[in-house]
Design brief:
Layout: H1 3-19, H2 41-45, E1 83-85, E2 93-95
Antiparallel strand pairs: 1-2
The chain binds iron/sulfur cluster.
Length: 107
Amino acid sequence: MSMIARRKFIQLSAVAAAGCFVQAGREVQAQDLPHLGTDDPMASAMKYTHDASSVDAASRPNPAPVQTCSNCALVQGNDGDEWRPCQIFPGKAVNANGWCSVWAPKA
Ligand code: SF4
């Protein structure tokens, strides 16, 4: 397993663990959630930004050319919404044009 694949596995395992704390049967509404701040310690650790275009493509761990929260496998909520829940940041909403280092392509 490569270093990148191992890192992704560990990150996604953290996502699965975080998902265990989400209340079953209650769908999270993005408008109920505070916006994730870039000064949030976990957001900072994951290099989250509200503007994916500000990220140097060469620094991304995944080579896919277009990477935003709106096309990430981990985003939740409704297509077209500006702020959406994310499995990585439970209890917060991320910007549809944002990005973090855990970005993963939709299957
Ligand atoms: Fe969440 Fe994906 Fe956006 Fe990262 S890139 S904040 S994992 S939706």
